[in-house]
C-alpha cells in the first residue's frame, strides 16, 4: 500500500489505493460502530443546519435594528474610517512622523526666508551699481525719445521710423570696449 500526505485542498482524484484504504477502515468496523458514527454524523449535520438558521435569523434581526436606528452602510463606513483615522493619529509612528515633518517644514521655511533675504540684498546691490544706473539712464532716454516722436511734439513720422531712430540713438549711446579710449574705460 502506498502512503502519501494529502492536503485539505488536494485536487487529485481518489486512486485505487485510496479506495482500498477506505474500505479497509469500514471493514474493520462493526456494524454497531458504523451505525453510531452515522447517527453522530446525522446529528452533527442537523446541528449545523440549525446553527445556520439561527445565524440567518440573527443577521436579519441585526439588519432590522440597524434600519430602525437609521444606520446605513455608508454611515458605518464613515464611522469606521473616522475611528481608523483617530487610531492612526494616536499611534506613536504617526506622532513621530508628524513631528519630523513639522521640524523639516520649519527648517525649510527658514532656509527659504534666508535665501529670499540674500536675493533681495543682491538685487539691491545690483540696482545701486554703476552698470545698472547707466543701463537705466539709457532706457529712460530711449523711452523719452519714443514719447517725443510718437507724441507729436517734434517732427512726426511713422511708428517704424520712430523705432529705428530710437534703436540708432541707443546704439550710438552704447560705447564698445574697443572704441573707448583710456579716459572712458571703467576702473
Throw out a few tags for this protein:
6 helices, mainly alpha, rod-shaped, 187 residues, 0% strand
Describe this structure in words.
- The longest helix is centred in the N-terminal third of the chain and has 39 residues, at 31-69.
- This protein has helices at 16-27, 31-69, 73-90, 92-127, 130-151, 159-173.
- It is mainly alpha-helical and 187 residues long.
- Helix content is 76%, strand content 0%.
- The protein is rod-shaped and about 125 Å long.
- Among the domains are: 16-71; 129-172.
Distance between the termini: 109 Å
Largest sheet: none
Bin the helical content. over 70%
- Give the overall average pLDDT: 78
Organism: Betta splendens
Region (Disordered): 1-21, 146-187
Keywords: Coiled coil
Coiled coil: 27-68
Strand-helix topology:
Elements: H1 16-27, H2 31-69, H3 73-90, H4 92-127, H5 130-151, H6 159-173
Protein name: Tumor protein D53 isoform X9
Region (Disordered): 1-21, 146-187
InterPro entries: TPD52
Describe this structure in a few short sentences.
The chain is mainly alpha-helical. Among the domains are: 16-71; 129-172. It has six helices and no strands.
Amino acid at each position: 500500500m502506498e502512503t502519501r500526505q494529502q492536503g485539505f485542498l488536494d485536487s487529485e482524484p481518489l486512486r485505487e489505493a485510496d479506495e482500498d484504504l477506505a474500505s479497509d477502515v469500514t471493514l474493520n468496523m462493526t456494524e454497531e460502530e458504523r451505525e453510531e458514527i452515522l447517527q453522530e454524523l446525522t446529528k452533527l449535520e442537523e446541528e449545523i443546519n440549525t446553527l445556520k438558521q439561527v445565524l440567518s435569523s440573527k443577521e436579519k434581526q441585526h439588519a432590522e435594528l440597524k434600519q430602525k436606528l437609521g444606520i446605513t452602510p455608508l454611515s458605518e463606513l464613515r464611522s469606521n474610517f473616522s475611528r481608523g483615522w483617530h487610531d492612526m493619529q494616536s499611534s506613536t509612528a504617526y506622532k513621530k512622523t508628524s513631528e519630523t515633518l513639522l521640524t523639516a517644514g520649519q527648517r525649510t521655511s527658514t532656509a527659504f526666508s534666508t535665501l529670499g533675504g540674500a536675493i533681495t540684498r543682491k538685487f539691491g546691490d545690483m540696482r545701486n551699481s554703476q552698470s545698472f544706473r547707466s543701463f537705466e539712464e539709457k532706457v529712460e532716454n530711449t523711452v523719452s525719445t519714443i514719447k517725443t516722436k510718437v507724441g507729436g511734439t517734434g517732427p512726426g513720422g511713422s511708428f517704424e521710423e520712430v523705432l529705428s531712430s530710437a534703436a540708432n540713438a541707443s546704439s550710438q549711446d552704447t560705447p564698445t570696449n574697443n572704441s573707448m579710449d583710456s579716459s572712458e574705460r571703467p576702473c
